[in-house]
Amino acid sequence: MTALARRRRESPEADVAADHPHRVIGRLIKQVFASLVRRIDERMQPLELTAMQWEPVLLLSLKRADTVAALARESQVDCGGMTRMLDRLEEKQLLRRRRSEADRRVVHLELTVKGQKVARAILPVVFEELQIHLRDFRKDEQLMLIELLARMLKNGARDA
Predict the structure, then answer these.
(1) How far is the CA of 78 from the CAs of 9, 14, 69, 82, in angstroms?
(2) 102-152, pLDDT tens digit by residue?
(3) What does the radius of gyration of the chain's CA atoms come to, in whole angstroms?
């Protein structure tokens, strides 16, 4: 008899706890995210971008942020870590920093021409990988998934 079978026979409630929907959902969300990021990261190698570098470039190109603080918030990374990341992107000549004339404490970020070219290559990769992960999902299932994930985020934000 295997260890798992013995544990199930001795403590059936342990098996129920192990398969509790919250654990399964959390694990699946983490695995889907990891799969997406891993596949996207592999495809970013020809662009010479690492796992942490392609997201800020994409967010800047989509105008979702234009300062270190806004990028850090959007990426859920601390400002120090984001600053180090931006140093590397600046070394690769993908972005430049510009001090705000209105408030010298604020540093605005903008993509260079090279950065804009790289950014245009990122979005199709992200879309293709999402399509792969959503293969065989009907349109109504995709819409339901969006609604459910948005509700989860809203619930989490409510207590934050």
Answers:
(1) 47, 38, 8, 6
(2) 888 888 999 999 999 999 999 999 999 999 999 999 999 999 999 999 999
(3) 21
User: Could you tell me the end-to-end alpha-carbon distance of the chain, in angstroms, rounded to an integer?
Assistant: 46
How far, in Å, CA of 23 to CA of 150, rounded? Answer: 19
Domain boundaries, the chain: 3-158
What are 57-73's pLDDT values in tens digits?
A: 999 999 999 999 899 99
Number of other residues whose CB lies within 10 A of the CB of residue 115: 22
Query: 3-158 has which fold?
Result: Arc Repressor Mutant, subunit A (1.10.10)
Q: What is the pTM of this model?
A: 0.75
* Phi, psi dihedral angles at 135 (to 5 degrees): -55, 140
Identify whether the C-beta of residue 134 lies closer than 8 Å to the C-beta of residue 142. yes
